[in-house]
Design brief:
heterodimer; A: 228 residues; alpha/beta; six-stranded mixed β-sheet; four-stranded antiparallel β-sheet; 8 helices; 29% strand; globular; B: 415 residues; alpha+beta; 10 strands
Chain lengths: 228, 415
């Protein structure tokens, strides 16, 4: 029996009250097993990003439950949630969100800085993950001086540095050309297969979605279908 | 903080100006105040009290003329303003246990002083007697207990009497001449034990010790009828033990009950000090105002910083950084700006002061040696830096709070 790393039941998310009530998500139920790669697919405005925010514990649902590794997160305090995200999650965003004027190494070790890891260990880990994405020679360069593809690789390295259980990727190839995008996707999937890191990719690209083990289709805030 | 070096530097500069100004105003206040303190030493030590007969009028604010009281006699030396103390008054005052060295203040009017080169110069006896602590350029203070005639020469007399410098005058003999009631001029000799620096107050008279004054007085009153002798305008005494405000009030009460009023040098200079203190307060207030203006600079700078780093903050929060740490991050930036601005400001002010003091001392204030217009203590300097860091912290709370409260989702969506 494979463990469920993420379980959501009857998830609701709405904004506003009364007449101006907007229901972003309605009654979402599904689960993800450890080591899986899942694509959350939908058009722009479908609620897929909202769903990811909830799964990544960056936001609280209006109703429903979320369980990470079997533990219901509703009862967790803000501090525990912060800790959870810092230890178990890695993030890859479409817009990179790198600190341009800092060095590549500085950028990569950010999650460890937040965790309070010691300087020496931080730098070691930093170089390790940069090696994994084949950028260790760029460790001292300014992040701004890298190409788009290199930047996204740095972002992936940063997402890796804390040995996460889940990597959330929001349109990871959105800002990249096709060829570079392919390299990045290859990298993400190899991490998924070799290190067993669960991959949750939010995308509107059906081709990318097809590469994942499963696809969760969201339309107008509702779960349309899960394939296969 | 270093993302926009220019912006940070300008903010630090604003704080620098505030710190610089505040340190200077504080320094001026301290310098002048300390100088007055030392000059008070010229007028009399803290434990000296000057005693006169209580005014006859029980209600001194009453502008009506005082009725004539035949038991009291006007004191000629004060132009009739106060009434004389007689021997019995001196004895009466001596009964107060907290007072010692009760001496009448003799007014002596010597004719001249001469020394090595036998040139005769007019000399005025200082009305302060031998109980004062003088601002000395050389030598020692007067000895009130000795039977020898001693005086402390004014600096101005050093060269005219034929001495090469202040130190040369120490230990040398002088001749003081005084005319008695018969019109005969007599002389005494007196030793120079010290040389007094030219000062702001109390320096027109030369200080004689108790023995010299007594001897001169005896000569001066020689030939006067008994009734004219032993009449004094005032008496001086020393307050025993620790000088506290309570003790001074107590002594004054005791004098009052016997019919005398006492005033200390503190009283005499009280008004003066109050003026200096008020001036310093006003100057400091203006400096603090400039600081407040600078603190708005900090708020502005940090708000811009928070705005610029919206995405960064959102990212850090997504990665699990607690809000409290975000708050501290920006708060620390504010305090650091305050620290650097104040440190540089204070150091510059102190540095400038050294130069200014030297220039002023040699040019404009040559007549007032010993006056450092700007004086600083470690406490006041640390106090300024501490105050500014607190102001900086408070300025930073608004922006830091804004950063801490940011929603990571909104921050990351921010274009």
């Amino acid at each position: 029996m494979t463990e469920k790393v993420l379980e959501v039941k009857n998830l609701d998310k709405s904004y506003g009250k009364g007449a101006s009530l907007f229901q972003a998500l309605k009654d979402i139920t599904f689960s993800i097993t450890k080591g899986e790669s899942v694509a959350i697919v939908g058009k722009s405005g479908s609620g897929k990003s909202t769903l990811m925010h909830l799964l990544a514990l960056m936001d609280k649902p209006t109703a429903g439950s979320i369980a990470i590794d079997g533990e219901n997160v509703r009862s967790l305090s803000k501090q525990k949630l912060d800790l959870l995200r810092n230890r178990k999650f890695g993030f890859v965003f479409q817009q990179f969100f790198l600190n341009g004027s800092s060095s590549v190494l500085e950028n990569v070790i950010l999650p460890l800085k937040i965790a309070g890891t010691e300087n020496f260990e931080r730098n070691n880990r930093g170089l390790e993950v940069l090696k994994a994405v084949e950028l260790e020679d760029k460790a001292k360069s300014k992040a701004n001086n890298l190409s788009g593809g290199q930047k996204q690789r740095v972002v992936i390295a940063r997402a890796l540095i804390n040995n996460p259980q889940i990597i959330f990727a929001d349109e990871p190839t959105g800002n990249l050309d096709t060829t570079t995008g392919e390299t990045i996707i290859k990298l993400l999937f190899s991490l998924n297969k070799t290190k067993g890191i669960t991959l949750i990719i939010v995308t509107h690209d059906p081709d990318l979605a097809a590469m994942c083990d499963r696809q969760v289709y969201i339309k107008d805030g509702k779960l349309e279908r899960i394939t296969p | 903080m270093f993302r926009s070096k220019v912006r940070t530097i300008l903010t630090i500069l604003a704080i620098f100006i505030g710190a610089f100004t505040l340190t200077l105003t504080n320094g001026i206040g301290a310098g002048i105040s300390n100088y007055i303190e030392r000059q008070i030493g010229n007028l009399g030590q803290k434990d000296v009290i000057s005693i006169t007969l209580k005014p006859a009028d029980a209600l001194p604010d009453n502008n009506a003329p005082d009725k004539y009281d035949p038991t009291r006699q006007s004191d000629a030396s004060s132009g009739g303003f106060s009434d004389v103390l007689r021997e019995k008054d001196i004895e009466s005052i001596k009964t107060i246990s907290s007072l010692s060295e009760v001496e009448p203040t003799y007014t002596v009017a010597p004719d001249y002083i001469s020394a090595a080169n036998n040139e005769k110069y007019k000399i005025i006896s200082s009305f302060l007697g031998g109980l004062t602590k003088l601002d000395l350029a050389a030598g020692n203070q007067l000895n009130a207990a000795t039977e020898n005639n001693e005086l402390v020469l004014l600096e101005d007399y050093v060269s005219v009497l034929g001495f090469s410098n202040a130190n040369d005058a120490i230990g040398k003999k002088t001749i003081i001449a005084i005319t008695d009631a018969f019109g005969t001029q007599n002389t005494v000799t007196a030793n120079i034990v010290g040389v007094q620096r030219n000062g702001l107050v109390g320096s027109s008279g030369t200080a004689f010790n108790t023995a010299l004054i007594a001897n001169l007085y005896a000569l001066q009153t020689n030939g006067l009828p008994e009734a004219s002798k032993n009449k004094y305008g005032a008496a001086t005494a020393k307050i025993n033990g620790e000088i506290t405000d309570e003790k001074i009030t107590e002594v004054k009460k005791q004098l009052d009950s016997l019919g005398y009023s006492g005033s200390t040098t503190e009283d005499a200079l009280g008004a003066f000090n109050a003026v200096i203190d008020t001036l310093t307060l006003v100057l400091n207030a203006f400096a603090v105002i400039t600081l407040l203006a600078a603190s708005f600079g900090i708020v502005n700078t940090l708000l811009m910083s928070v705005q610029e780093r919206t995405k960064e903050i959102g990212l850090m929060k997504a990665m699990g950084m607690p809000s409290s740490r975000v708050f501290l991050l920006f708060s620390a930036e504010a305090v650091l700006i305050g620290f650097w601005g104040s440190l540089l400001g204070v150091l510059s002010a102190v540095g400038l002061a050294q130069i200014v003091n030297k220039v002023l001392a040699s040019q404009f204030l040559a007549d007032l040696p010993g006056l450092n217009v700007l004086e600083f203590s470690l406490m006041s300097v640390l106090g300024v830096i501490g105050l500014i860091m607190v102001i900086a912290f408070i300025s930073g709370t608004l922006p830091a709070n804004k950063a801490a409260k940011q929603n990571p989702i909104d921050a990351l969506r921010y274009e």
